[in-house]
Design brief:
This protein is α+β, with helices and mostly antiparallel strands. Helix content is 33%, strand content 29%. It has one domain: Histidine kinase-like ATPase, C-terminal domain (Heat Shock Protein 90, 2-Layer Sandwich), CATH 3.30.565.10. A hairpin with a 2-residue loop joins strand 2 and strand 3. The N and C termini lie close together (8 Å). This is Anti-sigma F factor.
């Protein structure tokens, strides 16, 4: 069975935990393991934080959109902003790369996403925003929608 949800919120740091918990609650109908749930919450946190800090430069008026679809034990998550965009996606995906070294960020967001998800696609254009598409195949025997 297929199910989906959409979420829209402002680019304020307080909404990062809201997004993380909301996606985790939605995905819980697949009966994920604690490890899978932790990985999903972590990638949501990384992608939303990237949108807030890098996409909108912490301006509170930007909007972040999340769509999550589950189907036959697979989760597809799209996190989108209409912020600054990424000039060089390959460079941004390099471990330890950061465009804001003054913030003491580790530059590991995309690396973490790639390690926790089965597939990560990044679509971005300067001044138009970024969409991060994340896919995870659940490993549990109960990975289905009730």
């Amino acid at each position: 069975m297929k199910n989906s949800m959409n979420l829209e919120f402002l680019s304020v740091s307080q909404n990062e935990s809201f997004a993380r918990v909301t996606v985790a609650a939605f995905v819980s109908q697949l009966d994920p393991t604690m490890e899978e749930l932790t990985e999903i919450k972590t990638v949501v946190s990384e992608a939303v934080t990237n949108a807030i800090i890098h996409g909108y430069h912490e301006r509170p008026d930007g909007k972040i959109y999340i769509s999550c679809t589950i189907n036959d034990g697979e989760m597809e998550l799209m996190i989108q902003d209409y912020g600054e965009g990424i000039a060089d996606i390959d460079e941004a995906r390099e471990p330890l790369f950061t465009s804001k070294p003054e913030l003491e960020r580790s530059g590991m967001g995309f690396t973490i996403m790639e390690n926790f998800m089965d597939k990560v696609d990044v679509i971005s254009s300067p001044e138009e925003g970024t969409t991060v598409r994340l896919i995870k195949h659940m490993t549990t025997n109960k990975a289905y929608c009730n």
